TrEMBL record:
Domain RagB/SusD positions: 326-587
The family this protein is said to belong to: Belongs to the SusD family.
Residue intervals of the SusD-like N-terminal domain: 67-206
Keyword hit for 4Fe-4S: no
Subcellular location: Cell outer membrane
Organism: Autumnicola psychrophila
SUPFAM superfamilies registered for this protein in UniProt: TPR-like
Pfam families cross-referenced by the UniProt entry: SusD-like_3, SusD_RagB
Descriptive protein name: RagB/SusD family nutrient uptake outer membrane protein
Assigned keywords, A-Z: Cell outer membrane, Membrane, Signal
Domain of life from the UniProt record: Bacteria
């Protein structure tokens, strides 16, 4: 694989050039890395290759969990979940993409100090520092993805992946490559994050006075215009200190979790404090965005975002493309001209509590199985289309009952729901797919949302200090969970009685936090990874709701056939053959 990466790098370098070079080809039309010194745009192409490997959309790997199935039974996640997951068939693998990114980033890092970005010494140094900081932050991001997907028990110890700190080339001795321990991988992430923090601004925003210029650059006679040129708002969406801190929070939560906290030094206390580093910058519990539940369909905000700006709920996002209807085409029910691809399960629907905050199986919940959607957590209707829901630009009624008389009913046509539910979350319902009047809208794709970091803190703080302990921070797990549930509208007419009843019970609070994470981060690619790091059973049968004559029948829809060893993902079979890596147990 590494030789292939080198080949692609050389191809990119051969094709990369400025306008002058297109008009006046280099001698013998030959380019190599030595050309990088006086061509910053040429050099930065290496860095951009790291950015292009960030996730560009939603994976919907929930279709491989108890939260959803696919209306397409040949979907790769359905195949994976029903027994075909293997080291040579891995729809959730991160190996090739992440190592390709790291190769480009290492090439950039190897040349970063040799490039002349500007004649002004201060500007030149700011460019060098920013570029290296971006490389370190992005490299930590991709190392986390590798550890999450491919770290596992092998030969009696928890192993990670090879740690690549130098660019690989034709002279590299690949026979010496070995998997590092998981702990070594985590320490590399922490080291890269510290370097990124040291080199990057908190945010890419313009400043207004010289007092805001770091002494390092001020002593080189940098002025406000110099700073804004290199580190100001024109660089929004690039790696920053704030983003690097959030990546550290995400990685440390993985390392502290039951499946990965074996021979590792990261503690729950570490994970809580790393999350708090981000939350304190955001104003603590009071910084939780009131409209953070519906960040995906707030057209008034999304449509009017200035270049690179984020809504208050989004910490880091990808560049926003132009108007599109692709997501709605995937997810709308058939009567709205969609493919109904992702079908939430009854398992997930049952995890939404009642509006009074009690789980539906609690004796004080007031749940009525014959009217299962009445008096439920408001998030249920925000995220999921149930029988009788209204949806789309004209609030059309969606009937999922078998005898409902439309193609939206259970198993009526190929694109009909298999569970009795359709997905509403993530959609812009002002998109119209009617062939007579199709329109499109802008969509936003977050890489990190603040709600994730709040939930990271709640989980880690509860494990470290119990529900009401703070560990010296200004808030507890209980404080965060209360704010999240208040935002959701639970117990709007009184206190959250259920939360109050368990705030002294660490085990009950753990269950509640995990459930809140399941709901708040649903269909954003977390459930599969969360179940694995918690060492939870992956094989819960996916259930549906069959409605006939007004009666609800819970039905099995699709099995989940995972073995216990699949808590850890495999090393790709091709890499085992090429490099003789030790495979994770069971694979």
């Amino acid at each position: 694989m590494y030789k292939k990466i080198l080949f692609f790098v050389l191809v990119v370098l051969a094709l990369s050039s400025c306008e002058k070079d297109f008009l006046e080809p280099a001698i013998e039309n030959n380019r190599d890395l030595n050309d990088i010194q006086d061509e910053p745009a040429f050099a930065l192409g290496l860095l951009y290759n790291g950015y292009t490997r960030l996730p560009g959309g939603f994976s919907f790997n929930e279709m491989a969990t108890d939260d959803a199935v696919s209306s397409d039974e040949d979907n790769t996640y359905s195949n994976m979940a029903t027994g075909q997951w293997a080291s040579n068939f891995n729809p959730v693998g991160q190996w090739q993409n992440s190592f390709s990114a790291i190769q480009y980033l290492n090439l950039m890092l190897s040349k970063a100090d040799t490039v002349t970005y500007a004649e002004n010494p201060a500007v030149n140094q700011m460019f060098k520092d920013r570029t290296k900081g971006e490389v370190y932050g992005l490299r930590a991001y991709f190392m986390h993805r590798l550890l999450e997907a491919h770290g596992g028990m092998a030969g009696g110890q928890l192993l990670g992946v090879p740690i690549m700190l130098e660019p690989q080339d034709a002279s590299t001795d690949f026979s010496s490559f070995q998997r590092a321990t998981f702990e070594e991988g985590m320490q590399q992430i922490y080291s890269d994050i510290e370097k990124a923090i040291d080199l990057l601004p908190l945010d890419s925003e313009d400043i207004g006075s010289e007092s805001e210029i770091p002494d390092k650059y001020l002593n080189m006679d940098a002025d406000v215009n110099d700073y804004n040129r290199v580190l100001g708002k024109t660089n929004r969406l690039r790696m920053t200190e704030r983003i690097a801190l959030a990546i550290r929070s995400r990685a440390s939560l993985l390392a502290a979790s039951p499946a990965f906290n074996q021979g590792t030094t990261t503690t729950w206390e570490d994970a809580a404090n790393y999350a708090a580093d981000v939350l304190d910058i955001n104003g603590g519990v009071g910084g939780l965005t009131p409209d953070g539940l519906t960040w995906y369909n707030d057209g008034g905000v999304i449509d009017n975002l200035t270049a690179g700006a984020n809504p208050s709920e989004i910490l880091w996002r990808t560049n926003m493309p132009g108007p599109s209807s692709a997501l709605e085409e995937q997810l709308y029910p058939p009567t709205l001209f969609g493919d109904g691809l992702v079908n939430p399960t009854q398992n997930l629907v049952s995890s939404f509590p009642m509006a009074n905050g009690f789980p539906i199986d609690h004796m004080e919940s007031g749940y009525d199985a014959s009217n299962p959607y009445t008096n439920r957590d408001p998030r249920l209707m925000e995220f999921i289309v149930v029988n009788g829901s209204q949806m789309g630009p004209f609030d059309e009624t969606i009937i999922t009952a078998v005898d409902g008389g439309t193609n939206d009913g259970l198993n009526i046509v190929e694109s009909s729901t298999r569970t009795g539910y359709y997905l509403r979350k993530l959609l812009r319902e002002d998109v119209n797919l009617d062939p007579q009047s199709v329109n499109q809208q802008r969509h936003i794709n977050p890489l990190i949302r603040y709600t994730e970091i709040y939930l990271n803190y709640a989980e880690a703080a509860n494990e470290a200090w119990g529900p009401e302990g703070t560990g010296g921070n200004a808030y507890s797990a209980y404080d965060v969970v209360r704010a999240i549930r208040e935002r959701a509208g639970l117990s709007a007419n009184g206190g959250d009685t259920y939360l109050e009843s368990i705030k002294g019970d660490q085990d009950a609070m753990r269950e509640l936090i995990r459930n809140e994470r399941r709901l708040e981060l649903s269909f954003e690619g977390f459930r599969f990874w969360d179940l694995r790091r918690w060492n939870e059973d992956l094989s819960e049968m996916a259930l549906g709701d069959r409605i006939l004559n007004g009666n609800h029948e819970i039905i099995p829809v699709e099995p989940r056939l995972y073995s216990e060893y699949m808590i850890y993902g495999p090393i790709p079979y091709s890499e085992i053959l090429k490099f003789g890596f030790t495979q994770n147990m069971g694979w």
